[in-house]
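for the writeup, i need someone to sanity check this before i put it in the appendix. the sequnce is what the collaborator sent (i think, or maybe the updated version? ugh). structure was predicted straight from it, no edits. if anything looks off just tell me and ill rerun, i have time this weekend
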Amino acid sequence: MSPEAMGRPLLVVSCGLFSDTVVVRLSGEIDAYGLAPLREHLRRVWELPPTSFLILDLREVGFCDSMGMNELLDIMHRCEARDTRLLLGGVQGVMARVLSITGLRNAFEVFGTLDEALRRAAVRA
């Protein structure tokens, strides 16, 4: 049964480009059902020439399971291979707890808002 039929929210993914930064906005749940749309959007990102930064805007993520966390780690490794810095913006609530509980809070560059992450990218620190 599909997530829609079960009344579960899907993961909605959208992308934008700001200067030399790709921003991927996520809304919904990062789990087994959400991986397909996320991977599809990222496939297009990986086909582009590398940018200096990739920001994942997580402010509207309501759930993230172990498969979602593994995907975030895979994205981080892919970024490292492309010499792109991965920034996580909008990390509050659920995502802040998941990163803390898993011990991965310090593995990522984490910002409470998208604006903070965009400012970091603009500074090119």
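Helices lie at 35-47, 66-81, 93-102, 114-123. The chain has four helices and five strands.
thx in advance!!
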